[in-house]
Amino acid sequence: MGTVVDLLKRWDRPQRGCQLPLWVEIWLGISAMLCTLDVIYTMLRPLTNRGGPLECVYELWNWYADVDLRYATANDLVTMATGRVMIIEIVMNLVSMFMNRSGSKHTLITAFTTNAFVFWKTVVYMALYISPADGNPSYINPTATTYDIIVYFWIPDGIWLLMPLIVLIRLWSELLVYPPGLLSDNPTPPTGRSAYYYTKASNIDDNMSNSGIHLPAA
């Protein structure tokens, strides 16, 4: 048990010279790869659909499309639009990974933002299937069993909802940097990377004051 806990702690720490926890960086890479495959699938339909020459390459996607008829429809506007949005997510994921390895100060906010995009895009997509208004067709295959709907639709979409949410929660505290002059008289000491940035900001202000440079009052 101790070994597992130690492993999880090690994965939750950034590698030397990086800012993102290792598991977040791995997730960004996996997400970029799967989103790229997903975009190719939607762009090349019907070649990637059942009966197409690329069906065998996208067997897992077609399991999903057997339940979600939007994915099985070559000219579906919603999945075409989400595919274009995914291109932005892919680029931001790769940029986040590059920034993380190059020590950019924008790494955390970029990784946070791209996961926020993924989270809310998935929320909107899943909401389309929850109690659609009268007169709108259902895109859940009527012949799909409850097992198929849960295993091939809700669980994959749920993972794509849960993972970005966990990343957002994990990175949120890393973004809490307090500007000088906005803290209470007895603030709670910041922890983690926020403590480092706050200390750096305080030192800068102290150095400027000691040098005769006075900052305007807030």
Automatic annotation (TrEMBL):
Coiled coil (UniProt feature): none
Residues that span the membrane, as ranges: 20-44, 77-96, 108-130, 150-172
The protein's name: EXPERA domain-containing protein
PANTHER family attached to this UniProt entry: EXPERA DOMAIN-CONTAINING PROTEIN (PTHR37919:SF2), PROTEIN CBG05606 (PTHR37919)
Key words, A-Z: Membrane, Transmembrane, Transmembrane helix
Source organism of the structure: Panagrolaimus superbus
